[in-house]
Specification:
about 230 residues, two-stranded antiparallel ribbon, mainly alpha, 7 strands, 7 helices
Length: about 230
């Protein structure tokens, strides 16, 4: 119930942010600061409530996903290794670079958080002109640091799937370091990493949902966790 309430609050804050953005981009509104004052106050209160609850919500979700991993044998003395830890936070977009003659990711670069869509377009065009490649900027579903970084979202299926997915990258670094450490430089190692993470995610995510959130266990409409890095 605590996690559901937390996710509801995140969704409410996202809707308030969207309403505020619409006011600021509406040319018919001469004073967007005044017009959005009430919404911004409500948004700030919602954000404060989210911040006060985030750590506990994350801890509950971490234990729920770890429980499924523990049952599958990913534990030493009852402890999942490495422990599954994540933070929900703003994530960078990533620039993906491919060859022109075939679809093959040959490089990727994380971008500064907070860039706008017009800046993304400039980066893509400049990269393609300079290096004769194809490129595009895309959001990521998670970042396999430690603790892993997950996007703030009201979607429980997405958070649970992505938590399991990103944990696999840390597990491979713990148990299969040569493959994991070659992620950035070797397309084959990257494919092994991502394929393994997706396989585990598809097993663990539905199991956690079925046990703790059975009313949404069949809803995979938010299953976007195959995009994390």
């Amino acid at each position: 119930a605590f996690v559901r309430d937390y996710m509801r609050r995140v969704g409410d804050a996202e809707r308030l942010d969207a309403e505020i953005s619409r006011i600021y981009i509406d040319p018919a509104i001469a004073d967007p600061a005044t017009a959005s004052a009430d919404l911004r106050n409500r948004r700030d209160a919602a954000r404060a409530a989210i911040a006060a609850r985030q750590e506990l919500a994350e801890s509950i979700l971490q234990e729920q996903v770890e429980g499924a991993l523990r049952e599958e044998g990913f534990a030493l003395g009852g402890q999942v290794m490495p422990p599954l830890r994540f933070k929900m936070t703003a994530l960078p977009n990533v620039l993906i670079v491919s060859r022109r003659d075939r679809i093959e990711r040959i490089d990727q670069r994380e971008l500064q958080v907070g860039l706008t869509v017009d800046r993304f377009d400039e980066i893509e065009r400049a990269t393609e002109r300079r290096f004769n490649v194809s490129s595009f900027v895309t959001p990521i579903g998670g970042l396999g640091a430690y603790p892993t970084m997950l996007p703030e979202t009201p979607s429980l299926p997405f958070i649970i799937d992505t938590a399991a997915h990103e944990w696999v990258h840390n597990y491979l670094l713990f148990r299969l370091a040569p493959v994991a450490m070659s992620y950035s430089d070797d397309p084959v190692a990257r494919t092994i990493n991502e394929t393994t993470a997706v396989i585990v995610q598809r097993e663990i995510g539905p199991r956690v949902l079925k046990r703790f959130y059975p009313d949404i266990s069949g809803d995979r409409s938010a299953d976007g966790a195959e995009a994390p890095l």
